[in-house]
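Hi support team,

I submitted a single chain yesterday and got back a structure, but I'm not sure I'm reading the token output correctly. Could someone confirm the output below corresponds to the sequence I sent? I've pasted both exactly as they appear in my results page.

Thanks,
R.
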Amino acid sequence: MSGKGWSRCIISIALLLSLISPSYIVMAHAGQGWSLSPGEIRVDGIRLGETASFVVTIANNNDLPIGFSISATIPRPDNLRPGYEPLPDASWISFTPQQIELPPFSQKKITVTVAVPSEGDWGGRSYECWLGAKSEAMGVIQIELDCRLLLSTSAAYARGVYWPLIGGITGITVIAIGLIYGNRRKLKK
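Hi R., thanks for writing in. Yes, this is the structure output for that exact sequence:
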């Protein structure tokens, strides 16, 4: 085939595919008609063993329903903000709900929960993770929008009241007061 023959063949195949599967066009338009907000979230000073929750919103501004799955992605080191390191484990992040179906011209709030484990050397550091909303495939094209999560951890542990320590301190205080009071009475005699 000559140069014109190849170009005619390619144009014919593209037209045929667009007639057979119009979802290529629909999905490209759908990606432009939905959003994930906010674009960046900061969670500062979360203690080891503690959880923090916040909300992201997905909006469908199209006249077609769109399904989404929500996930956490660990970015490559060259995509990180200066001073941040990749989140050690994406399982620290959970979503409620994790999959949604949005009717036309609607929005849905997704609760995101970050749970930093109490075991490990995670304190006093800054991590980055991307929260992604991926449209369900309606053809070959699938679109994902990301929100940047910047997380800093405190070196402190999130612990409840340690009752044995409180009991020990109280016991020592009672004994010390008893000894002081007893010695004082002996000195008066």
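A quick pointer for reading it: The chain has a mean pLDDT of 77. Let us know if anything else looks off.

Best,
Support desk
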